[in-house]
Amino acid sequence: MYVVTAASGTRRAGCLVGFAxxxxxDPPRFVVWLSTANRTYRVARTAxxxxxxxxxxxxxxxxxxxxxxxxxxxxxxxxxxxxAGEAGSPVLxxxxxxxxxxxxxxxxxxxxxxxxxxxxxxATPPTRPPPPLLRYQDLRDLDPGHPA
Length: 148
Description:
With 148 residues, the protein is mainly beta.
């Protein structure tokens, strides 16, 4: 599971994402799929960069915030430590594994749109192995803040 964050102008948004994948080795590319019903999608449409945070099992509170609340009603960033990264894209403090990617293209996919990203910045590699990944099965009890 991932949290994807975006900024455009003075607007910030972020959401929990389950659909994402590396899609090219050379050049390196990654794609994240955002629900068109989601505020993060509306902000990402005009963003130049997105930040993709890989969640580990000790990041459950972050998953609950960014997956269980909607930015239409709650300022998620008021409840999470963060700093502005490349082109102002929000980087969540305390998330060990992340990268920021320049939006290279968009792919229509029904109720989700894929954002093709070219990595331009990344977290410093950890000095010790991270905890196990947070998986979809770990979040089955999460009530989404927005319908997909």
